[in-house]
Amino acid sequence: MHWNSLGEFFAMGGYAFYVWTSFGLTAVLVAWEVLGLRARRNQAWRDLQQARLMDQTDLGEAR
Whole-model pTM? Predict the structure, then answer.
């Protein structure tokens, strides 16, 4: 598709609402997924550190 101006590009041949809503929603969902993955990774890391601490405490009591 060929656009003669920036305004025509943003109008997307009359489909601007659909196109830009799709791009925006996709960007929001990708960002949400990245933030969710980061939160789950951090929680898993905290759980692992807590389990290590518990193991060290259990080993200390067994001696």
Answer: 0.68
